[in-house]
Amino acid sequence: KQALNIVKMKKMKKDKIPLTVLTAYDYPSARLAEEAGVDMLLIGDSLGNVVLGYDSTIPVTIDDIVYHTRAVARGAQSTFIVADLPFMTYHGSIDETLRNVRRLMQEGHAHAVKLEGGKEIAATVQTIVQSGVPVVGHIGLTPQSVNQIGGYRVQGKDELDAKRLIEDAKALEQAGAFAIVLELVTEQVASIITSELSIPTIGIGAGRDCDGQVIVFHDLLKYSPDYRDKRFVKTYADIGAQIRSSISEYVSDVKKRQFPGPEHVFTAEDGVVDNLYG
Ligand code: KIV
Ligand code: NA
């Protein structure tokens, strides 16, 4: 049933067909994204910021990601689904890492997992891949290490940093990753990495030459109470403003007794009610 797989993705890179990736956190958004033709859905730990109201991804737990992955999987039954391994869920023992991976796959119904890091995480990537689970790498700005990086800053700006990113990307490919997310990387460095790897790169704030693009659902739609423009985001709607004004109309209608209207009420002639929950 699933439309895409990791073999087809590699072929898409060869054929220069861009890979479209979107984050998703629940059933309706996942289903709408599938109907809109997205290639891959990512249950990102950006969940923490955009859905759970934290100010970083660090508080997000494996339980959070499992719960939301399940909902996404119910909504998008024909789409390739990747789930993030959250902060500190892949840095302990191999047993603990594989237990968390198992939960994302078996309880969440993901098709692959994503984790942050370069060379230092390559052995972990290899272990997960050897267990039969496809892995997406993630380098550049890695939000789980924000306290170490000292802020959300562009990566790959000097020669040393560029060299490190290219080596990290190669180490991840070597370890068996089937794709790599490049976050907030200069266009030049992302372009070099993309041309030197045989696996697809998926960019976010990483320029025009990546094999695919990923964007956060809530950014694409401005679905946030306090959305602030980001250079690397293109917004396609202002859903936050629409939600706020729609709810305010509802509040005002009830206050003014304009809702419910005559068309919304029941009389003794009515029977079964359609389109209810349950
Ligand atoms: O958590 C997330 O949404 C991500 C993407 C930004 C790649 O990791
Ligand atoms: Na993430």
UniProtKB/TrEMBL annotation:
Cofactor info, note text: Binds 1 Mg(2+) ion per subunit.
Binding site for Mg(2+): 45, 84, 116
Keyword Metal-binding: yes
Catalytic activity: (6R)-5,10-methylene-5,6,7,8-tetrahydrofolate + 3-methyl-2-oxobutanoate + H2O = 2-dehydropantoate + (6S)-5,6,7,8-tetrahydrofolate
This enzyme's EC code(s): 2.1.2.11
HAMAP family on file: PanB
UniProt record similarity statement: Belongs to the PanB family.
Protein name, as recorded: 3-methyl-2-oxobutanoate hydroxymethyltransferase
Organism: Fontibacillus panacisegetis
